[in-house]
């Protein structure tokens, strides 16, 4: 039996007040994990960095595509970015991946 199944079995025995307390605790845990992930990602980014992101805005013609963008500003929870096509987005820092340009190694004659 998986851990998830065990938790569900335990939840069956709880009354409504206890379930509400469990819900509050789970919501707080999810928020904490998201916040931690965003803080970690934010620490690795700075204005002017080139990043990659998958666009999830259904109104954009770039929806579903992974594109390169430049960070214009970084706020408390989100970064404002401009894609190479000029579209501007505000997105959580945790959704951005810093783009590392391959470096040329003159000793091997290859990009690393």
What would your notes on this structure say?
The chain has helices spanning about 5-10, 15-45; strands spanning about 50-55, 65-75, 80-85, 90, 95-100, 105, 110. The protein has about 110 residues and is α+β, with helices and mostly antiparallel strands. The chain has a single domain (about 1-100), classed as SH3 type barrels (Roll). The strands form two sheets. Strands 4-3-2-1-5 form a five-stranded antiparallel sheet. The protein is elongated.
Furnish the topology, listing elements before pairings.
Elements: H1 3-12, H2 16-43, E1 50-54, E2 66-74, E3 78-83, E4 88-92, E5 97-98, E6 104-105, E7 110-111
Antiparallel strand pairs: 1-2, 1-5, 2-3, 3-4, 6-7
């Amino acid at each position: 039996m998986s851990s998830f199944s065990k938790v569900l079995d335990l939840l069956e025995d709880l009354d409504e007040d206890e379930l509400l307390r469990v819900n509050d605790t789970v919501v707080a845990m999810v928020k904490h994990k998201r916040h931690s992930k965003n803080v970690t990602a934010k620490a690795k980014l700075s204005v002017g960095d080139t990043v990659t992101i998958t666009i999830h805005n259904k109104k954009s013609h770039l929806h579903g595509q992974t594109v390169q963008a430049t960070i214009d500003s970084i706020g408390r929870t989100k970064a404002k970015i401009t894609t190479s096509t000029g579209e501007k987005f505000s997105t959580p820092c945790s959704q951005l991946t810093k783009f590392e340009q391959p470096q040329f190694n003159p000793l091997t004659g290859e990009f690393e």
